[in-house]
Write a structure and sequence with these properties.
It is built from 12 helices and no strands. Helix 3 packs parallel to helix 7, helix 7 packs antiparallel against helix 8 and helix 7 packs antiparallel against helix 10. It is mainly α. The longest helix is centred in the middle third of the chain and has 35 residues. The radius of gyration is 20 Å and the shape is globular.
């Protein structure tokens, strides 16, 4: 049997073994928190690592071709700025989505805005926070930008590839429009630099803010964040201003980043034959 046939089969066996192991773990320990952490590890390590490794090897791509530290330092400040911009857009567009949903299903909005109590186990919060803030961004960037983006740009061209890959990324997130815009920026960062570390840093900075809001301070930033139905109306003006401003700036940044990029895309087509 060829290696191409063996690898997907092995991937399936690993998935099955992981599921069985997790359920055995739950039965043995009866610890729901440990079960939750195990699920995250499977989702962000056990499954993506062999998947990415198989496709990298199949295309003859080495890790140091798409992930390197050289020249990354000069992107730190721009990435921090983009993080603030994308986060501002995500928060304000989330407000707009909830305002629209209020007229359809106020019960659903109330459910979304009702705070959920966090477990008292510090180890669980630390483990979950680290997985979601660091491991998840690495895994998602390798899958969505390192693989899916390259495939779609190859098959459909520059803008359609960026758009479709960002659409797929957005579907996997609750805040679809915020995730979509984030993915467009991350895609352009990767295509511009040919280095997955740059969008990974953007993703890590973004997720650290999200973890801080979820685990430490759900009211951050207090003047903008919506945490109750009343906030949907009392914070309309600042959210609307931030939404318009951040969207305009993001579109400007996207246009600037994409200038000449389509013509130079061959330099980053490391997956393509």
């Amino acid at each position: 049997m060829s290696e191409e046939k063996k690898s997907p089969s092995m991937f399936g066996w690993m998935l099955g073994a992981s599921i069985v192991s997790i359920f055995i773990l739950l039965q043995v320990t009866q610890n729901v928190l440990l079960f939750g952490v195990a699920i995250l590890l499977v989702f962000y390590i056990v499954l993506p690592v062999p998947f990415v490794r198989y496709h990298f090897k199949k295309r003859g791509v080495k890790l140091d071709q798409v992930f390197f530290f050289r020249g990354t330092a000069r992107w730190l400040l721009p990435v921090l700025g983009l993080t603030m911009l994308v986060t501002s857009f995500s928060v304000s567009i989330y407000w707009l989505q909830l305002r629209g949903l209020m007229s359809i299903s106020p019960i659903a909005v109330d459910s979304v805005l009702t705070p959920q109590p966090l477990p008292d186990a510090v180890w669980y919060l630390a483990a979950t926070g680290f997985i979601l803030a660091v491991i998840a961004p690495i895994a998602e960037e390798f899958v969505f930008r390192g693989l899916i983006l390259n495939w779609l740009v190859e098959g459909f061209g520059f803008w359609k590839g960026v758009g479709l890959s960002s659409l797929i990324f957005g579907i996997f997130h609750i805040n679809f429009f915020g995730a979509f815009m984030f993915a467009v920026v991350a895609s352009l960062l990767y295509l511009k630099t040919g280095n997955l570390l740059v969008p990974i840093l953007l993703h890590i900075f973004n997720n650290v803010i999200a973890i801080y809001q979820s685990f430490v301070n759900p009211y951050f930033p207090q003047w903008l964040m919506v945490t109750s139905i009343n906030d949907l109306y009392t914070k309309s003006v600042p959210n609307l201003i931030v939404l318009i401003t951040s969207l305009a700036l993001l579109l400007f940044v996207i246009l600037r980043m994409s200038q000449g990029l389509e013509n130079k895309i061959e330099e980053n087509r490391i997956f393509w034959e």
